[in-house]
Amino acid sequence: MSAPTVLAEYAPGIHASIPELEYHTLPGLSSTGIKHLLDCPARYEHERTHRTEKKAFDLGHAVHELVLGEGMGIEVVEADSWRTKAAQEARDAARAAGLVPMLVADHARARVAADAVLAHPDAGRLLTGGMPEVSVLWDDPTTGVRCRGRLDYWHEGAHVVVDLKTTARSAAPRGIDRLAQSLGWHTQAAHYRAGVEHLTGRAPRFLHVVVEVDAPHLVSVVELDADYLAIGAADVRHAIDTYAHCAESGEWPGYAPGVHQIAPPRWLDSTPTEEA
């Protein structure tokens, strides 16, 4: 997608009016960058210099925009697939203009999912009365590394951050812990909370609104507990320190050499099931 070629200068603070595409051009370590650093510094450096918008994110971008009222803009292409040349040209033109191209059917899916969020008794209330798409910029007090985050929804008075998540899996609260872990929700929450706390003197409450992109478009509201957030905070601290070291040395190593022993995850039951 196209992006502004001139970087604006923004002081550390909470900014409510930075366009999304401009935000992504700003310097600073984001929660996505932290996830890449936790994989390995080489992953971070590659993604930093080869940033692309993944098509799989289009549906999520659309749901966000339909719920929050702000985003990159949606271009609905009147076609039932991307197979035709006309549809492909319309798609490419939309991306070149910085818009999210969507087929009619996909846009309808996004609309139903957004409506489900807004109609939910808890999610709908959490996503009204505040400020959408708020950018947070701060300098890490330990290393001086510039950090940034993009809050989906910010309730300044209540000091609450609401993060909207779309998923092709189940949004059932009883099983969402594995989804949260695999996608790094705990590191994102910890990173954003650290930024808001640094700027305001108080860590915010951080809530996730989760909606299924497929029917029946079920919605849940979840909150990571203190232990989960503490793990996220430790991971964020490690990632920022790693970034500072790599930036100073100019070296961005990959995975450690040698043979790595892999143990089963704790949730995997190794006991064979006896047949009746």
UniProtKB/TrEMBL annotation:
Domain Putative exodeoxyribonuclease 8 PDDEXK-like: 30-256
Pfam families: DUF3799
InterPro entries: PDDEXK-like_dom_sf (IPR011604), Put_RecE_PDDEXK-like_dom (IPR024432)
Entry protein name: PDDEXK-like uncharacterized protein DUF3799
Source organism of this protein record: Sediminihabitans luteus
